[in-house]
Amino acid sequence: MGRSGPALDPEVPVLAVKVGRYPQTPSHLGAVRSFGRLGVPVYAMVEDRFTPTAVSRYLTGAFVRPSTGREPPEQLLAAIVAAGRAIGRPSVVVATDDESAVLLAEHREELAPYFLLPPVPAALPRRLANKVDLHAICQDAGVPTPHACAPTDRAGLVEAGRRWGYPLVLKNLEPFTRLRHPVVGHTTVIRSEQELLAAWARAAPADGRASVLAQEYLPAEQAEDWITHLCCGPDGEPLVLFTGLKLRSWPPGRGVTARARACPNPELAELAARLCRRIGYRGVADLDWRLDLRDGRYKLVDFNPRTGAQFRLFETVDGVDVVRALHLSLTGRPVPPGAQLSRSFGVGQIDLLSVLATSWGERRPPRDVWPRRSTERAWLCRDDLAPTVAEAARFGCSVVRVLAGSVRRS
């Protein structure tokens, strides 16, 4: 069962790429469904034949190319080129993680015979994905952002904690190093100097230096989490620009989106558009903001130069999302203007975990517990059930492994 949408060129296929082991990423499957429903041949690089993406009815072909992100760039690039050659005609390529976005931008000339790519400045995606470079870009552009620094040793990290106080947020600093030498598994809230020193001791390399960002913590009870997804055309103007409110995440308050709602926000939209114009951004991007209710300012937390995990939350009344807008632009077709639809997005199993954790911690259920009729689900779709089964199996195995590990440690 297909869905209506813009008239994409069915002669131009799509390749969804990623680097690292993320078999359960909703953005990968979302891209496959988005294009496949409109009759565009869509291929994907996957870890194995049984990932949720690989079993989608909308996937034309899977390239099994497992990677860790620790491979030499030449090896990762060769895998993308091999996929392009196998497809056999120029294709639109969609990056679903920072590492692949960086590779595509920095090697655009080598990839040009096989792929259609937005003319983003080659060095820009790496700078945007680097947390300390992003902080400098925001300061230069006059865009609010939390205080941050990139201490390279233990003393600098301790000094940051004493300067801003606790809690303190720790993030891996840049693409590729977050896969090769992660300091934290994900964005981590540190609540004391003792916790900070323990985290450093677990992750610091032998030379006592590490790639980490220390960031000011904006209290969850005095903030709102907002999302901006957009696609900028070759002239730098946004072809589509969406805004939404993140309702829950996993882990709560600092992780990936578990539930969100599309909400028009002209002030935030203009702030995001102004930043992208200023830096000359081209292509798809996913921006995370935190509205600091203490001063009423939207502060940029992350700029992901690629498709976001929850991009299917956003669609216009004409059926345009960010990846469809990219395809239209790169194939020389107009992007129809239209207001964004009012709907929600949920990632079933992790949303359930977030609800349970939030209810336990706050002693009350969170808002928007029950899905709305207009909810776009990351996995469960009546017209594409196989990925739901594959995801449930993988999630179940993950739970068993966690429980088994807990038993062994007890």
Automatic annotation (TrEMBL):
Residues 135-331 form the ATP-grasp domain. Gene3D superfamilies: ATP-grasp fold, B domain. It comes from the Bacteria. Keywords: ATP-binding, Nucleotide-binding. InterPro entries: ATP-grasp (IPR011761). This is ATP-grasp domain-containing protein. It comes from Kitasatospora herbaricolor.
